[in-house]
Amino acid sequence: MQRFNEILKKVGNWGTILFTAVVAIVIPYEVNGRYVFERMSIWSGEVSTYSLAWASMLGGAVGIKRAT
Questions:
Q1: What percentage of the chain carries pLDDT values higher than 90?
Q2: Is pTM, for the whole model, over 0.70?
Q3: Is 43 in contact with 1 (CB distance < 8 Å)?
Q4: Contact between residue 48 and residue 30 where contact means Cβ atoms under 8 Å apart
Q5: How far apart are CA 21 and CA 43, in angstroms?
Q6: Contacts of range 2-8, beta carbons closer than 8 Å, 24 or more positions apart
């Protein structure tokens, strides 16, 4: 069971990194699309919102696990 918990912690770490990177890429893309190219993509707002939510949830879970 401890091995399974370690695997879940690593998946949570990498998931947090992945979703934070997605937010860091999509939001500047969205801003450039809106103000520079004057064309807004329909998916960028949803992707950034869901990625931020997942990064927060996974980061919180990993933080709680590291504290115990």
A1: 72
A2: yes
A3: no
A4: yes
A5: 16
A6: 5/65
